[in-house]
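User: My notes are a mess, but here's the protein and pyridoxal-5'-phosphate's SMILES. Can you give me a structure?
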Amino acid sequence: MTDQAHSLGADDTIHLSIGVPSEPLDTQLLLGIADALATAKTTYTTTAGLPELRDRIAETRPRPGTRENVIVTAGAGQGIFLALASLINPGDEVAIVAPSYTMYASDVRLFGGKPVFVPLTPSQRGFFLEPNQLEAAITPKTKLIILNSPHNPTGWVADIDTIRAIVRCVETHDLLLLSDEIYKDYVFDEPFVSPEAFSNRVIVIDGISKSFSATGLRIGWVVADEQIIQALLPLHQLMLFSAPAPGQYATLRLLKTDYQPQLRRLRQTYRRRRNVVLEQLKDVSLFDTAKPSGAFYVFPRLRQGNALDFANQLLHEKHVVVVPGLDYGPEWTDFIRIAYCQPESVLLEACSRIADFARGYEAAHRLPKQAVLA
Ligand SMILES: Cc1ncc(COP(=O)(O)O)c(C=O)c1O
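Assistant: No problem, the inputs look usable. Here's the predicted complex:
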């Protein structure tokens, strides 16, 4: 959709598709990169990453650890790829909470594994995971569960009971849990809980991309039990040798500062943005919109028509780019994903165009579908 928007070339296009925060790059990271370049900190680092940076990352985690528990990667995405490439053998099954960030299932298939999707259930109060459905997806071939909370694309945040249920499932069946926590600083209604606090079978994926507006610096990390880290290191060395040095030095500088007040402000900003979008969409009768508690996405379901068709027409007629749910699998073709990582004024304009377009679209698609949200 983004490529199509670029080829259309309309000056007033609003992109609500890609998950890139609108804020400028974090100042500490900017100064850190400049300093690293000026002082020639531009060579390889140790394969697992700068020891001092790994210490800082280990200290910030809920489960006390050391540098031996951390690998610095080229973004969270490389951490996911590294973990799955190292751990999945042909024939292994991987339970994935769905809809899901498309990389998980693609990687699992690439390494000969089989993704088994465990769908979230939508309701007006938000999406939720039924632990029984997760249990039902586990077979003797299951190796791993993939959890992403706060969640792309629905904005779901797993509450503590759900986290405990997932951990129980992991422990009972002797599995591993890949916990992608890249949106952990975007939680609006309840505190973020990492499953890492309850089990040493958890492989945490995290990084600076979303929390510090640094998607292009390509710095992320994997945190896990030392034995798992040892299993990941050989492939990391073959793939990358080491994550980009300037980004590592800049991240170290950032993590030495007190960045929590800044993250609190970020949370407030995005809570407001979420509320603005929900308020604007609440009277759009074409949509069933479950309230998201985190990340920066809403995932409304269309009561009529087809979401791909809707997204295409919305782009051509109103110059607003959203992601059709089809990207997340055939079960999600009625949904669209709206990323609200833009200033409020832009969101207001985008929502007004969406609402306007939705009215006409609904009138043109008379065949009603049943509303699914209770
Ligand atoms: C759930 C999820 N995990 C990981 C990533 C990739 O993060 P990074 O840019 O740090 O590789 C994204 C990017 O959108 C994402 O949505």
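Residues 231 and 311 are 43 Å apart (CA to CA).
User: Great, I'll file this with my notes.
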